[in-house]
Amino acid sequence: MSGCLVLLVEDNEANQMLARAVLEIEGFEVEVAGSATEALEVLAARKPDLILMDIQLPGQDGLSFTRDLKSDPRYEGIPVVALTAHAMQGDREIGLRAGCIGYIAKPIDTHTFGTTVGEFIRMSQGDRRMVAQ
Ligand code: MN
C-alpha cells in the first residue's frame, strides 16, 4: 500500500503520533487532522485513499462528520474507517449506519494496524472495480 494517502482524523496527540509513525513505516503517506474542520481543509487540497475517523472529536463528532462526508458528492467515494475506544456491542453497527466501512479498536495494535489499514484500502478499491465491471 506504499504511496497510498491516509487522512487520520484524531484529536489525541499521542494517538496521532503513534498511528502516523506506524503507517509511515509501512509506506503510507499520512495527513493528520485534529477535528472535522481541519479535515475539511486537508480534503479541499487532497483526496486520500482512506480516512481513519476517531469517533470522539472536539466540535463535530466523527460519526456526524462521516454522515456529512457520505452525503457530499465530493467526498462520498472516500472510504471511512472508524477508530473507536468503545468495545461495546453495537458500535460497529452504528459506524456502518453512519457510512463507515469498518472500524479499528483503540488503542491500536502496532503489529497489525498497517496491514489492517491496507486491507481496508484494498477492499474499498476492489468494491469500486466490481461496480465498474
Ligand atoms: Mn478523540
Description:
The protein is of the alpha/beta class. It has a single domain, classed as Response regulator (Rossmann fold). Helices cover 45% and strands 18% of the residues. The chain has 5 helices and 5 strands; from the N terminus they run E-H-E-H-E-H-E-H-E-H. It has a 5-stranded parallel sheet with strand order 2-1-3-4-5, sandwiched between helices. Helix 1 links the parallel strand 1 and strand 2 (29-33). The protein is globular and about 30 Å long. The model has no long low-confidence stretch (mean pLDDT 91). The structure holds manganese (II) ion (MN). Manganese (II) ion binds at residues 11-12, 54, 56-57.
Main beta sheet = 5 strands, parallel
Count of DSSP-assigned helices: 5
What percentage of the residues does DSSP assign to strands (E)? 15-25%
Instruction: Provide the helix percentage.
Output: 40-55%
Q: What ranges have pLDDT less than 50 throughout 5 or more consecutive residues?
A: none
From the spread of the alpha carbons, the general shape counts as globular
> Helix- and strand-based class?
alpha/beta
Question: How many beta strands in the DSSP annotation?
Answer: 5
Strand order of the largest sheet: 2-1-3-4-5
